[in-house]
Amino acid sequence: MAQGIAAVYKNVQSREARSQIRYGLTAHLGSKGTYYRYKDGERLIGPRLQQEIIDIVHQYAPGVEVNFDKTFEDYDFTKNY
């Protein structure tokens, strides 16, 4: 799991690319409010959404290393296998 996406912009040098990434993430997540909840770490980011965020960043800034503010191991005990 990951928490916070403010660090995603750390390695992006181009101001235009940072702006496009923000717009792309906002569109993907559905609203500005949802974007800021993820950005500020109020919502956790699962593995699938992490990859989608990385894909959006690489769309506008190819080859940039993408980091999240915080990452940690988490287990989902609600699923019965």
* Biggest sheet strand line-up: 2-1-3
> On the 0-100 scale, what is the average pLDDT?
91
Extract low-pLDDT stretches. Answer: none
Global structural class: mainly alpha
Largest sheet: 3 strands, antiparallel
Broad shape: globular
Got a strand count?
Answer: 3
Q: Determine Rg (CA atoms, Å).
A: 13 Å
Helix content: 40-55%
How far apart the termini lie comes to 20 Å
Strand content: 5-15%
The run of helices and strands is EHHEHE
What's the number of helices? 3
Question: What features would you describe in this structure?
Answer:
The chain is built from three helices and three strands; from the N terminus they run E-H-H-E-H-E. With 81 residues, it is mainly α. Helix 1 runs antiparallel to helix 3 (47-60). It is globular. The model has no long low-confidence stretch (mean pLDDT 91).
Task: Give a topology summary.
Blueprint: E1 2-3, H1 15-29, H2 32-39, E2 44-45, H3 47-60, E3 70-71
Helix pairs in contact: 1-3
Provide a brief overview of the structure.
Helix content is 46%, strand content 7%. It has three helices and three strands, in the order βααβαβ. The protein has a three-stranded antiparallel beta sheet with strand order 2-1-3.
List keywords for this structure.
mainly alpha, 81 residues, three-stranded antiparallel beta sheet, 3 helices
